[in-house]
Design goal:
There is one protein chain. The chain is mainly α. It is built from four helices and no strands. It has a domain of 42 residues. The longest helix has 15 residues.
Length: 65
């Protein structure tokens, strides 16, 4: 049977799932995927405060997303 991944791959999957399960992260990624790219546009589209959006964007950036 072929190797379907390693511990490293599994760990990356876990990190990704943990990242998108944090409040707002999935919604932010969804908006970016559909073309919303500016901070103000994200803030308006999500109805989120600036400080929370900044923290979430920093978190996603640190993860390379």
């Amino acid at each position: 049977m072929p190797d379907r991944g390693s511990h490293v791959t599994f760990q990356h999957g876990q990190e990704f799932l943990a990242a998108i399960s944090e409040r707002w992260n999935y919604q932010i990624l969804r908006e970016v995927f559909f073309g919303v790219g500016r901070f103000g546009e994200l803030k308006r589209a999500l109805g989120i405060s600036a400080n929370i959006l900044t923290a979430r964007l920093n978190s996603l950036t640190e993860l390379g997303l």
